[in-house]
Amino acid sequence: MNEFLKRKDIEISLKRYGIDALGAMAQGLFCSLLIGTMMNTLGNYFGIELFQMTIATVQGIDYTLGDMASTMSGPAMAGAIGYALHCPPLVLFSLLTVGFAANALGGAGGPLSVFFISIVAAECGKAISKETKIDILVTPFVTICTGTLMASFLAPVIGNAAMELGNLIRVATTLHPFLMGILVSVLVGITLTLPLSSAAICAALNLTGLAGGAALAGCCAQMIGFAVISFKENGIGGLISQGLGTSMLQMGNIIKNPKVWIAPILTSAITGTIATCLFHLEMNGTAISSGMGTCGLVGQIGVYTGWLNEMTAGTRIAITSFDWFALLMISFILPALLSSIIHHFVKKAGWVKEGDLKI
What we know:
single chain, mainly alpha, 16 helices, 2 strands, 73% helix, globular
């Protein structure tokens, strides 16, 4: 068996699955959903026609360029996982179908579903690849059947499990603003970095108002926090891809050394409290914006949209300089400063060393 696994390049290890595959999946997510989100944001709020125009209409639904990219997040993640697992071409291409099924059926746990199911389908496909004379039929058949059947049974279970975390967040929203700010910020921030959909959970819970502001704080703490503390290792590219893309790019490093997560998590606890108790920052735009953080600046635009809605409804007279100050502090300045300070002491304690945050 060991000889067979070696011949098929099937390596059952934490590095192969928890670091290589997970890190690649984050890049697949970035190249689809997150890029698509940025395109739609640019189109909707800056009037860029290229990103506003309808590219295709499918079953009566209009798709922009960003919509098309976002829709392909499942296949993109699965393909990235297959690439990291060194899949032969027929397996790699078949994983696109598997990724679509797993993501579509996984709901808020879509990315996590894609991760587990794609790994199993990929390894099954690799095991059967070139073992028969009709490889072009057998390999895609085994890969697709294995993945889609698993998706039909397992993906909804993973999605429901993700929503259990959502229920914990829902309970946290009923607490005193001080405790609520800490718990909601930390939990939603962690969800953002994990292979889960924080945006889907926030949308399902209709997480707006003060709780939405705490969620935004947690997401920004993770994204800006990781972007800043890893700047020495990853440079400008890493700063942008994490700060405006996703902190999930650090999941491989978190698996290797969970202590790299200390600074962003502690930062989210602090900024969540400041957002709710000092700034009284509310997210009164769409609930999905609460779980987006600084990704394409969707979270910040969501807060601004909420202000405009309040002015239209007559509940707000004007957008003040204090409003902008609070938004900038919670979204960018405090996450950058606090995470840098905390991470300094984490490194000084010897818990994290140079290179631990290299993407």
